[in-house]
Write a structure and sequence with these properties.
The protein has helices at about 15-30, 40-50, 55-60, 80-90, 140-155, 170-185, 195-205, 215-225, 265-280, 280-295, 310-325, and strands at about 5-10, 35, 65-70, 95-100, 110-115, 125, 130-135, 160-165, 190-195, 210-215, 235-240, 245-250. The protein is an alpha/beta fold and about 325 residues long. The chain is built from eleven helices and twelve strands. A ten-stranded mixed beta sheet has the order 2-1-3-12-11-4-5-10-8-9, sandwiched between helices. Strands 6-7 form a two-stranded antiparallel sheet. Bound molecules: nicotinamide-adenine-dinucleotide (NAD), 3-isopropylmalic acid and manganese (II) ion (MN).
């Protein structure tokens, strides 16, 4: 088997803290995997004037995938989000965000499938003196492939298609394509307007299974859904393309808690589990997830989910359980 090689981007703020925790867990698995650190982001931009260079991209291309912490994206028109650029460059069209209760909310278990390359993130913006036009791009191909991905996760489940087709023509295309793809795949589906979906997810989260939506709706509804299962500190994600992927917590660089050693590492560690699954290492992936649930059940948690432990204490405990139960495959 070819040597596995991953790029590791710690990023800014708590990104550094949670990625070092995830790497400790990865090391406990004793896999033969090469890790290539890459510095990109706001910190680098402030220091060098460039947030990411072509050389950084060359390193990414030489690896199988990226394990990513979080990056500060200031609301500064001069600064272009490196994360959005990576998603576009590698055509990581499917952003998969499992919303699974880990503490008191065990009946919640659904997956947000967020289109990840178009919509309001098209990058087509016209800045006029007294107005700014941001263009929302929805294409048939873009909708088709995200709908196919969602259907592949929805076998035997119900697919909820979220849109705003009563108002937006772009959503009208998204809706039509998703319904066609669901019918073609014989997936049971329902549709929901995004405002109503936000309300119903909060009211009855346990009724949802797989939920597909456009880019910005997915960004917003994923943070909202995270709040139902303990917050952003526990929500992982995978950005998947045809032949490349990036794994990252849903949360950002959390400047309000950065540097205090209290960031919850679980979102990053569960993102690592998603990476292992993507590699086909299902046993190792399950071992990491099980270790997270075990440690949480022992009450070894950070303050955001009610505990008193530090990032490092949670990471040590999870690594120890993983080390004991490491699968032999
Ligand atoms: P945020 O996700 O960083 O933080 C939101 C809230 O969640 C904060 O109160 C924070 O303390 C808490 N939180 C986040 N992660 C946590 C963790 N691991 N453990 C405990 N609590 C945690 O969102 P924000 O404050 O709006 O954004 C900060 C910066 O991060 C912005 O510059 C934004 O653009 C950027 N951002 C980056 C990414 C990314 O790189 N993937 C994602 C979202 C936001
Ligand atoms: C996310 C983040 C990103 C997004 C930002 C940092 C570009 O909020 O991954 O959810 O808007 O997609
Ligand atoms: Mn977001």
């Amino acid at each position: 088997m070819r040597q596995m090689k991953i790029s590791v981007v710690e990023g800014d703020g708590v990104g550094k803290e949670v990625i070092s925790a995830a790497l400790e867990v990865l090391d406990a698995l004793t896999l033969d995997i090469e890790k290539v650190p890459v510095e990109i982001g706001y910190g680098k931009w402030k220091r060098t004037g460039r947030a990411m260079t072509e050389d950084d991209f060359d390193i990414f291309r030489s690896c199988d995938c990226i394990l990513f912490g979080a990056i500060t994206t200031p609301p500064d028109p001069e600064y272009k989000s490196v994360l959005v650029r990576i998603r576009k460059e590698f055509d990581l069209y499917a952003n998969i965000r499992p919303i699974k209760g880990i503490m008191n909310s065990q009946d919640i278990d659904f997956t947000i499938v967020r289109e990840n390359t178009e919509g309001m993130y098209s990058g087509i913006e016209e800045v006029l003196p007294d107005a700014v036009h941001s263009t929302r791009v929805i294409t048939r191909n873009g909708s088709e492939r995200i709908a196919e991905y969602a259907c592949s996760l929805a076998t035997g489940k119900r697919l909820t298609i979220v849109h705003k087709a009563n108002i937006l023509k772009s959503c009208w295309l998204f809706r039509e394509v998703c319904i066609d793809v669901a019918n073609r795949n014989k997936v049971r589906w329902e549709e929901m307007l995004v405002d109503s979906a936000a309300h119903r997810i909060v009211l009855n989260p346990e009724r949802f299974e797989v939920v597909v939506m456009t880019n910005l709706f997915g960004d917003i509804l994923s943070d909202m859904s995270a709040a139902l299962i303990g917050g952003l500190g526990v929500c992982a994600s995978a950005n998947i393309g045809a032949d490349y992927a990036l794994f990252e917590p849903v949360h950002g660089s959390a400047p309000d808690i950065a540097g205090r050693g209290v960031a919850n590492p679980i979102a990053a560690i569960l993102s690592l589990a998603m990476m292992l699954k993507w590699y086909g290492m299902t046993g190792e992936s399950d071992a990491v997830k099980d270790a997270v649930y075990e440690v949480v059940s022992r009450g070894i948690t950070t303050p955001d989910i009610g505990g008193r432990c530090s990032t490092a204490e949670v990471a040590d405990a999870i690594s120890q359980v993983v080390g004991i139960d490491v699968p032999s495959s």
